[in-house]
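Hi, here's the filled form for the chain we discussed.

Project: internal
Contact: R.S.
Residues: 435
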Amino acid sequence: MSGASTAPKTLLYSLYCGVSALIAPLAWRKVAGKLRDYGLPEERVRERLGHASLPRPAGRLIWFHAASVGESLSVLTLIARMGERDPAAEFLITSGTPTSAELIAKRMPPRCRHQFPPLDTGTAVDRFLAHWQPDLGVFVESELWPQMLVRARTAGCPLVLLNARLSDKSVAGWTKRPATARFILDQFALLVTQNQKTAANLQAMGAAPDRIRPGSNLKAVSAPLPVDQDALAEVRVSIGDRPVWVASSTHEGEEETVLEAHKAVLKQHPDLCLLLAPRHPERGDAVEALIKDAGLSCARRSKGVLPGPRTQVYLADTLGEVGTWYALCPLVFLGGSLREIGGHNPFEPMQAGSAVITGTGHYNFAETYAELTALGAAAEVRSAAELAEQAAKWLGQPEAFQAARDAAGQFISRQSDQLDKTVDALLALLPDRRP
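And the returned structure, exactly as it came back:
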């Protein structure tokens, strides 16, 4: 598999380089201001100009670049697995947001460090590359910065596009500029896609077919969400032996449907408790009002209240506890899907042993849900009546529910097998060991 670029530079790329240099002072003021507002020290802010705040480690360095929180966290399991396979390898993660930097710092695998990426200007990128001298560069999802790619490849660093995912809008934009699209994609020695649709899009955009390889969605093999064992035990004791179901990551306009479904299921399971965790906890007051309007009793976690024996809805309007709720109950409705919002990550509840109910507005995970519903690991609903019917089915038919959970677990296991193949492919691209 060739890693050398053969497509020529284009006029559009040259124009991009020129414009980048012109707007660099403005871009610098904007990104530096955001980092300073977050309270970061100046040496970390200057990483955006390519000034490293840490020394380069000895030996071979594998560089991962991700856009933000989700993409950054999704590669940590992969880095840990690569580190186990190659104990001499060192790792660098770059991501642009202070939130991602903070979370990465808490979950950093061994022999790994974080930096903010350089602005996509010649001076900043060259300064970054001169210091870090990466032996392999792995760009996650759709984070395609032209100068970063071209200059890294020119410096002799083989590049991989990993977990590739491109929106239809992005594909349409690139296909209008076929020569530049081919030039950018030609910088990659390997393109590992989340699904067949992305593989087909990359090929249509000009990527060499022999460099495209299907892979797993990294989010499917990320470390499970953290569980607060004390909180879990406390809520479990409060609920007792009552049946429970979870509606997590719900958005405005969805809670009404969930509450209507809950009222319907209560007719069959009168002691049922709904644990409702809105995507944005700051909506707690509005959601509590909806619960009261629906004529349901409510306890609210943000106010330190635990569910009592007659609590029909436990409003979990807090941050960072959804992993605890998945550990509490394996029957999960995942929001962001009853409206055209795009859906949320189904792998998180499945890693906790859950089966998932979803609406139809899950276009960000369309191919994943198609496979999950075909396997019986997820169920798709369109209305409050269908949601109530599905929840009641899984509550009342333990064997059917366990079969769905087993199918979800088997799906996650297959993704883990695919991860090992990705590790093999990445390590194979590393040059001979540095002295």
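Let me know if anything looks off before we file it.
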